[in-house]
Structures are given as C-alpha cells and as structure tokens.
Amino acid sequence: MQADLSVKSIDDIDYEELLKNGKSVFLFDFDNTISVWKSRTIPENVKKIFQYLKSNNAQIFIITNGKQREMNENIGVPIIWRSLKPLTFKVKRNIGRHIKDKDKVVVIGDQMFTDILFGKFLKVYTIKVEPIDTSKEFISTRFLRVIEKIFNVKQN
C-alpha cells in the first residue's frame, strides 16, 4: 500500500494542479497533518490553504480520530471527531453525499495505517505528508509508525 503522492508537508501540495484535475473535496487529517497533536488552533499557513481552496469552490472537511475539543476559533470547516479511520462508515454517514464522486476526493494525512488506508478504502486519491511532531503521540500511534517504517523499507 502506498499513497498516490508523498510530500513533506501540506505546504508542498500543488492545490492548483489538484483543482485543475477535478479534485474538489479535500479531507484533511488534523493531528500532525495540519497542526500539532491535540492542538486547538489552526496555523496561518493552513488557513491560507483552506481560503484558497474555498475560493475555488472546493469543499473541505477535517477528519480526525482525535477526541472532540474546543477550538480557539471557528474556521468554517466541518470537523468529524473520533472518525474511526481507517474505517469509513462514520465519515460516509456524516458526509457521504460529498464523497460519492470518488474522482473529486482527496485524503491528506500523516499516517499510512489510518489516513492513507482510509483513503484507499474510500477508493480516492491519497496524499501522505510527514508528521509535524511525533514527540507527544499515543503509544499506539508510535507503534504504528514503526510498523509503517518497516513496511516502507520492504516496498523499496
């Protein structure tokens, strides 16, 4: 299993190209993809990306396995908390009508066995980013990252 594209961060994604290729629904992971783990804020660079996508009529959703938390501001992007990735049923139940046309959907995340596998189960385009900061993650997430590294070595 591999992502369709791997980049260092969400800033390295060519959103203009994705939009030109008909992508219009963007499902972003939260923790370690758009912000540090357990953050309550959205960084300025991410807000700019969201504004750019919205100005081009794209739909944006944050899909996270994290617990619900009070955000410091309303960014106008729906968040599905405790989404149970890589399983798809909760996301389909919440935003199913937005992800029916698989050719328009992009999943962006930092974990192979949650985010990218979720995207593969949905049969959509996937982009893997490097995690922002792995120093304060759950032990289970750290374990999966070790497995992910082993898995990547065997693929190369």
Q: Could you walk me through the main structural features you see in this protein, from its secondary elements to its overall organization?
A:
The chain is α/β, with parallel strands linked by helices. It has a single domain (5-155), classed as 3-Layer(aba) Sandwich (Rossmann fold). It has helices at 15-20, 44-55, 89-95, 112-122, 139-155; strands at 5-7, 25-28, 59-63, 79-80, 105-109, 125-129. It has a 6-stranded parallel sheet with strand order 1-6-5-2-3-4, sandwiched between helices. It is globular and about 40 Å long. The N and C termini lie close together (12 Å). The relative contact order is 0.21.
List key phrases describing it.
6 strands, about 35% helix, about 160 residues, Rossmann fold, alpha/beta, six-stranded parallel sheet
Rg, please? 15 Å
Low-confidence stretches: none
Please tally the helical runs, counting DSSP H or I stretches of 4 or more residues. Answer: 5
Number of domains: 1
CATH fold naming: Rossmann fold
Q: What average pLDDT do the residues reach?
A: 87
Task: Give the overall silhouette.
Answer: globular
Please report the total strand number as a whole number.
Answer: 6
Determine the structural class based on helices, strands and strand pairing: alpha/beta
Assigned CATH architecture: 3-Layer(aba) Sandwich
Strand order of the largest sheet: 1-6-5-2-3-4
Order of helices and strands: EHEHEEHEHEH
CATH superfamily: HAD superfamily/HAD-like
As a percent range, the share of helical residues equals: 25-40%
Strand content: 15-25%
CATH class: Alpha Beta
Report the biggest beta sheet as strand number plus sense, adding barrel if it closes: 6 strands, parallel
